[in-house]
## 1
Amino acid sequence: MKIGIVCYPTFGGSGVVATELGKALAEKGHQIHFISYSPPVRLDFLSGNLFYHEVSVSDYPLFEYQPYELVLSSKLVDVVKYEKLDLLHVHYAIPHASAAFMAKQILASQGINIPFITTLHGTDITLVGKDPSFEPVITFAINQSDAVTAVSESLKQDTYKNFSGVKKEIHVIPNFIYLNDANFESTKCQRKTFAPNGEKLLIHVSNFRKVKRVEDVLRIFDKVRKKIPSKLILIGDGPEKGNIEKLCRELDTCSDIKSLGKIVNPEQILSVADLFLLPSETESFGLAALEAMAMRVPVISSNSGGLPEVNKNGYSGYLSNVGDVEEMANNAISILQDEFVLNKFKANAYEQATKFHIDKILPMYIKVYNEVLDNFKK
Ligand code: GMT
């Protein structure tokens, strides 16, 4: 198949999933064309089967806001036509689904028919998409998609709840992970770089937006370090970074926190961590938690959204109500204070991650592609 993948190129989970999916499909012999405004961060190579097409946004002075959706639609028309694509797969509804719909209509007017699949990732539905100013367009674009997938059962239900006009069947296809023991050993970096005196290592990876409740991460860590010598590693960057720096001074924890900023592949650092903290307000899936579990790191998370589908309470980690910092800290301590318990949770976290192995998830996407193409030919 020749597939056009539209995604955000940045550090957000939807871009990571889209890029890893494209890479896996290319390995299976499909031709993948990424279409975005800059190269996706996880697109670390281009092969015979992997291509990148840039959407360039002009900065004509009349436009206070650049019409990205229009230039994206035009680019889709161009790429579909000249690369002779079979289908488009857009990740994150806003504005990719409506841009794909527009491109599909333009192409149809020229006698070219192409289906598009929309994958819903999370904040396009749970936060941004709920904004009434987006609702009619998102509802329409979802209903017009030739197939729709969501990354968790929870997100599927949220879509029907938040967008009462959505009538389309939604296929749940969870996020996925590569598991490779050889890779795990080779990426293991020196633990003592971060924990010179044998401290326990806690870690948080996110885009530091409000929804991630990074302040809770610091408050949980503060309680843990009062009981168990430990260090906290923060990976990522975003609007909450300033508040976090302020809070670590207030709590007097800065000397035990290492902030590493944006890191494309955090596996190496995850491989030496003991516990992953993800107390998010809402999380449609929690890819960051799955990436940690794949590196044998148990997860302390909130129980919101799709997190219970990923992190199993009392097995791969613990889940608590959003904002229950006290319980999250106690659960963290219960895992970290006993080496036997910690090792058990580490093994369980890895076991739980195997359920999301790419080999199990990729066929689900291919099945949807084939069904869409078959229906389209009828
Ligand atoms: O909010 C983010 O972390 C970024 C966002 C995105 O779409 O780029 O992530 C969402 O999609 C990920 C991949 O499917 C999910 O694993 C995240 O849980 C989801 N984020 C939220 O729901 C907050």
## 2
Amino acid sequence: MREELTFNLRGDYGASQREDMTVDFKWESFTPENHEMWRFLFGRIMPELKHRACKEYLDGIEALDFAGENGIPNYDRISDKLEKRTGWRLVTVPGLLPPEIFFAHLANRRFPVTTFIRTPEEIDYLQEPDIFHDMFGHVPMIAHPVFADYFHAFGEGGMKALKHGYLPYLETLYWFTIEFGLINTPEGRRIYGSGITSSMGESKFCLSPEATHIAYDIKRIMRQQYRIDVFQAQYFVIDSFEQLLESTAPDFIPYYKEVSAQEKVAVGDTLPSDTVLQLGVKAA
Ligand code: PHE
Ligand code: FE
């Protein structure tokens, strides 16, 4: 998600003169060091994700042939493959985007990808999404038809929430599904959130007994507070991507009204009404 941050931004925000904030970018301008960084991150995390990420995510990695790219994937090649599968394309942007621009891209099945990759000093944490987060974390999921439709609907939902002054609630839902979502599968609980798949530390932590897992519930999620600079104190677990798509189809305005009259839930807290899930226990 594109949070409003004011310190040490890495992106070149003066680079775009366009209203949609896109920039012309040549993949050829990546340096050998940039590609080496990708190979390092990719090679380090793939073995961890083989048994932790959901099948849909791993299928996306395979369908787009990230391994065969052997470095930062070529944007045009990935974009063409993505378009054939789900009708999405990639566009290049300096980094974080204002919500109205970001959601408008999603609503048009365009996924904005940054043009910078972390340096060796920033290997495990940085404040803005870099290529490894955007491309490795998000793009494989967008190759899945149902998730791709969810993401598209989210763009339209974002514009609507913004117009009615309820954006923070939808941003929270974005955070706990697209960025930090977990899913129940026949093989056990798995990761689909891009904030987790692109993080070496969190991909292990989120499936450890220290993590709290709560059954997916939209209005409950909208009340949850969260931190963006540490591992999440709770994760919300869906049962399928169809559930995600169907549950977000209704008009959210009544949800927003209801939730805005309720108390927020502090980081790390659970409610008596929560369905707290045990690790390794499959959904009924
Ligand atoms: N259906 C929601 C609304 O009417 C929009 C939405 C769609 C939100 C998909 C999230 C995901 O506001
Ligand atoms: Fe993200």
